[in-house]
Task: inverse folding
């Protein structure tokens, strides 16, 4: 992915400005758009250009100006990227008065300043750091190889008064990159237990943020970043893009309907486990890529009126090739595999569900109840009704 595309991706995901600064005109436009008061030297074009020239390559700089406006500058070999501005906390009138007092700023329009701050999104630096990590990964860089620096131009009395949690900030970010990389490695290895363990470590490390993490919109953004990170790991492992899209899409739809941070956290865990399991199956090498994709398609679309012709078309092969390769590797034709799969799913429903036989049949993709009964009896030696009578609530 090009760096410009990665910037657009992060901007859309976070609803935050992400732009490449490549010339004087870019710096002037950026500063003019975000400047408010003379104390903000970071939004003076000449100062910002001079600062950026001095930044070392492969570095990430978290900057907070005298008015508590935050900005991230990322310097790669070819580009300088600005993420933000953004803010890391809401400001009450008392907070603003304290800021003015500690900064020796006179005749400062408090109401206008608060309106100015409201233009910027509210995020915590740890959350933004995850976004920066994803941006760099999508652009082909290793985030852990980037040096991290934290610059604050806020007077120290105000910083102490608001109890900013910036101590050891560089170590926090580097630790997060390291743990995230370990999580990705475990996913790529198909090790769901270790992948979830690392994810829980990441999750626990941000509990201290309190209200930040509990806001549904913030948690949804965090889940989006997690999905993107896990997708990258799955791609590195060689998992089929169609399977990646399916698992990721399912999780995204679930997250969109959740409102609690813990429920989203649990869904992220479930998604990580699903990816790791799929990768493990893929890495075991039992089936070729073609047959693996066909099995995945049948297992996740058995409840639809799927046909072998449709499967072959979507996989880009002829029907005869699909049948021949599938039977050679599984011992069954795709039709036989789908038939057995539907019967197994129906057995599970009959054991644990009080739905009618028609409803069970439709749930497994057979819309003619009489035909379903005939198929079931052929496979099991008894009708669905008799099977339910014998096994309902007896078998887990």
Result:
């Amino acid at each position: 992915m090009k760096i410009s595309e990665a910037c657009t991706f992060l901007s859309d995901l976070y609803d935050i400005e992400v732009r490449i600064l490549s010339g004087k005109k870019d710096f002037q436009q950026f500063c003019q758009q975000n400047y408010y008061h003379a104390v903000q030297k970071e939004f003076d074009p000449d100062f910002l250009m001079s600062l950026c020239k001095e930044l070392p390559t492969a570095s990430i700089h978290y900057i907070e100006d005298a008015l508590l406006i935050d900005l991230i500058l990322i310097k790669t070999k070819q580009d300088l990227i600005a993420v933000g501005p953004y803010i890391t906390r809401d400001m009450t009138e008392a907070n603003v008065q304290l800021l003015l007092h500690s900064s020796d700023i006179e005749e400062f329009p408090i109401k206008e300043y608060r309106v100015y701050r409201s233009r910027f999104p509210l995020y915590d630096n740890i959350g933004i750091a995850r976004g920066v990590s994803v941006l760099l990964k999508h652009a082909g860089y290793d985030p852990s190889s980037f040096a991290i620096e934290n610059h604050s131009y806020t007077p120290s009395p105000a910083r102490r008064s608001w109890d900013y949690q910036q101590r050891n900030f560089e170590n926090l970010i580097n630790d997060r990159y390291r743990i995230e990389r370990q999580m990705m490695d475990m996913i790529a290895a198909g090790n769901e237990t270790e992948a979830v363990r690392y994810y829980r470590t990441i999750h626990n490390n941000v509990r201290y943020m309190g209200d930040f993490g509990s806001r549904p919109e913030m948690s949804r953004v965090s889940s989006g970043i997690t999905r993107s990170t896990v997708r990258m790991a799955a791609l590195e492992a060689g998992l089929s893009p169609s399977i990646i899209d399916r698992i990721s899409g399912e999780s995204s739809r679930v997250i969109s309907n959740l409102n609690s941070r813990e429920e989203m956290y649990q869904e992220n865990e479930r998604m990580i486990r699903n990816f790791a399991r799929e990768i493990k199956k893929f890495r075991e090498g039992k089936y070729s890529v073609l047959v693996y994709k066909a099995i995945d398609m049948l297992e996740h679309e058995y409840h639809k009126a799927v046909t072998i012709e449709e499967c072959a078309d979507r996989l880009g092969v002829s029907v005869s090739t699909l049948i021949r390769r599938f039977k050679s590797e599984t011992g069954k034709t795709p039709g036989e595999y789908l038939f057995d799969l539907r019967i197994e799913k129906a057995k599970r429903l009959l054991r644990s569900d009080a739905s009618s036989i028609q409803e069970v049949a439709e749930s497994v993709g057979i819309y003619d109840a009489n035909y379903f009964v005939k198929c079931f009896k052929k496979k099991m030696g008894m009708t669905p009704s008799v099977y339910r009578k014998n096994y309902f609530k007896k078998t887990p």
